[in-house]
Amino acid sequence: MYEIRLHSRGGQGGVTAAKLMALAAFRDGKYATAAPFYGAERRGAPIVSFIRIDDQQIKIYSQIHQPDLVVVLDSSIINLVNVFDGLKPDGKVLINASEIPKAASGYKSYCVDLTGIALKTDLIVAGSPILNTPVIGALAKLGLFSKESARAAIAEMFADERNLKAAMMAYEELVV
Amino acid sequence: MKNIRVLTLMPTVPDTEYIHKCTSACAGCSSDLILRHVLKAAGPDTVLVVPACCTSVLQGVYPNTSFGIPVYNVAFASAAAVASGMAAAFEELGKNTNVIAYAGDGGTVDIGIQALSGALERGTNFLYICYDNEAYGNTGMQRSGSTPLGARTTTTPGGKPHQKKDLDRIIAAHHLPYMATSCSAYPQDIVRKVEKALSIKGPKFLHILAPCPPGWRYDTAKTIEVGKLAVRSGMWAMYEREYDTLTLSGQTKAAMMKPAPLEEYLKIQGRFSGLKPDTIAEIRQSMERNLRLLKKEAEGTC
Amino acid sequence: MLTISTGNNAVAAAVREAGTGVVAAYPITPQTEIVEQIANFVTKGSMKASYIPVESEHSAMAACIGASITGIRTFTATSSHGLLYMNEMVNWAAAARLPIVMANVNRALGPGWNVWAEHTDSLQARDTGWLQVYVATVQEAYDATLMAFRIAEDRRVYLPVMVNLDGFTLSHITQQLEDVKIGDFIPPLVLDHKIDPAHPGGYGCMTSSVDYVRIRSDIERSMRDSVEVIRETEAEFAKRFGRSYSWTDDYRCEDAEVLILSMGTLGKEAEVAIDILRSEGVKAGSMRVRWIRPFPNLDLGDRELVVIDRNYSFGFGGILAGSIRAKTGKTCYNVIAGLGGQEVTYHDIASFVRNRKIGTEEWFGVKI
After folding, report:
1. What is the domain range of residue C279?
2. Interface of A with C (CB under 8 A)
3. Does ipTM surpass 0.90 in this model?
4. Strand partners, C165
C-alpha cells in the first residue's frame, strides 16, 4: 500500500486534489481511497487529506501516520505544521514552490511552482489560483499514476481545458 | 321577512354533509360548526391534516370516524409540514386534491408556528386554517399565545397578563396570495372564503374565531351570539388580504361605524370576570389600535 | 458503471436510481452533501422528484410522512442533532406504517459540538419501529439504500428503514463505486393504506387500549416478518448485481476462537487487525453487525467475544454489547471506542483483542 498525506489550506482545493488522486489511481486499475480530515475548518486554515493506493481493497479508515509521500500545496504551512511527521525513511515530499524550502532539504524533496502554473494558465476561481488539477500532473511525473490516468481523471471531473493544460505543464516542469 | 332573507343566503352553502351527527364535540362547539362549513365548501376531493387539538378528539374513537373525508392526524407541531409533504406528493402524482391543515391556536401560534412559517415561505399549495378558541382547549383551557389580555385560564388564574399574539400580521409578513379572517357565527362567510381560498394556487391561510362554551364560560346556547358580539364589538375583525391588498368584510365595516359595547362582549363570558377597569381600558386600546391599522390598510394609507 | 464516489454521493445516487418521488430534508454536517446532491439532481432534471427544503428536521420527517401516505416513494437524510430533533416524527412514521427511507450519517451529540462519527444518535432511535442497517463502505451505502426501499415497501413490512453510515469516515471518504441499473428490483410502491378521498377514513385518531395493543403488536409482527424480507431482498440483490450482504459481515470467523464484534467502518478496519492477530498465531475473526433492527440471531458458539461499541448508554454500557448479552446470554470484553470521532486504528483494535478481559468494560484512551 502506498500512503499519501496532503497538506493544504481550506479553499485551495486539497479535498478535490485528493479525490482526483484516487480517481487517477483507480483509472490505473488500482484500489484507492481519499479521506479528507475535517475539523471545524474555515477558509484558509491548514487541512489534511489522506490518500491510499493499493492492489487490494483498502479496509483502513484511520489516519495516515507514516506516509510514503507528503504533498504540500501551500509551503507556508511548513511553518505551522510538522508536515514531515512520520514520513518513511525513503519517503518523498512534493512541495508547491519554485525552490525547495530549507526545512525540506533533509528529505527526498521535489518542488514545482503550481501557483505560477495556475496563474500562467489563467486557472483562477474567485481570485484564487486553482492548484488541485496542476498537482495531479506533478504527481503523475512522480509516478503515482500514469500520465494517461491523470488526464482521464481531470477530464472526468472538469470540463474546462485549462485544468488539463495546467496539469500537463506541471508534468513537464517537475524535475525528477 | 326574516325567513325569506335566510333562504336567499343559504343556497350558497352546499347541502352535502361531511361531518356526521356523531362527533364527540362539546355541546355548543363552534369548531365543529366551522369545520362543517369548511368541508361543505371544500367538497369531497379533500384531505384534512389535523394536529393535536380538539378536532383530534371530536372525530370519534378508532375504528369509527364521524368525518366523511380522509383525516390524517399528526403530531402537534407538524401539521403544516405534513401538509406540505402531502401537497408536494399530490402534485407529483398529478392530483388536484385539496390539502387543508386544520389546527387550533396552540398548534398554530405556539408550537406549530415554525412549520407553518416554513410551509408558507416555500409557497406550499395548501390551505391552513387556524380555528382559534384562544386557549389550549383540548387539555382543559390553559393559556396559549392566542389568549387575550385579562382572560382567566387554568394557567392564568388571575387573568392573562400578556396581549394576544398578533398571528395575522405574522402571517401577512409572508405575503400570501390569500389570507382571511372569519368567525364561526358567520357560516356563509366561511364558505365563501374557503371556496375563494381553494380557487387559488399556493399558500392560503384562514384564521377563524371559535368561541368555546366551557373555556370561555358562557351558556352553550349562546355560541353564535358570543361570536357575533366579538365581531360587532370590534374585538374580532373580519377581512381578506390578497397579497398586500386588504378588504374589510361588511360585518367589520359595520362594527367600525357603530360598534357594540365592548363590555357586553366581556361580561357575557366567565373568563373575563373581575377585570379591573384599567385592564378593560388596555383591551379597548389594543382593539382600537388594531381596527385603526386595518382601516388605514384597507384605505391604502398605511 | 465503475467510478469513484463519496459515501454521501453514493446514497444520493441510490435515492435517484430508486425513483424517489419526494425528498424533504434539512442540511446538517456531515449529511449535507446528500441533500445538496439531490437538490442538484432535481434542479438539473436528472431526478424527477419534488425536493422540499424544509425549515427543520422535525418538518423534514413530517413532510415525508405527509408525502408517503399518498403512496409515493419518499426519502430524507439527517444526522445527530437532526435525528434527535425529528425524533417525535421518527416514531410517528413507523407507527403510521410508512415505508420512508432515511440515511442517517452517524455523528456525536453535543455538547460540546462534535461533528465526527459515533453511533449513539441512531441507537437512541432503536426502539422506534424503524429497521436499522449500518454500512461500512461507499459501495455498501449505495447498495443498502437501494435495498432499503424494497424492504420498507414490502407489504409484509410497511415500516421505515434507516441506513446508517459513519460521519466523515464514510460519508466523506472517496472509494470506488459500481452503480447499477435498478430495473424492476424495486417494484412500484403499492401502499394498501394510502390516503384516498375516494375512500375516506380516519388515520391515527383516538384509539382504545385494546386496539392500541393490537396495532402495536402488528408492528412487531412486521418487524419479525421483515427478517425473511431482508433475506429475500439481499439474495435477490446478489443474484442480480453480484454483491452479497447478510446480517453480519464475517471475516475469518470459521475457525476463530475470539471474535471482534463491531458496527460501521470500525468493522472493516477490524479485518486488518484480524490479519495481524492471525500472523501472531491468534485465531481471531471479525463479525461486523449490519442489522440492529431487527436484531439478528447471532451464532457465536463458545468463542470469546470482544465487542467494540462506538456508542454508550449511560448507566448501562455499550449498546451492542448489551444487546448481544441480552440476546445470547454471553458476556464479553466491551471496549467503548471511537466516540466523537476518536481515532481507532487497526493496531488499537488488535491490542483490544490481545488485552481482553472477558466480563469487563473499558473505555479506550481513558480510565473511569
Report:
1. 248-363
2. 18-19, 22-23, 26, 31-38, 40, 58-63, 65
3. yes
4. C105
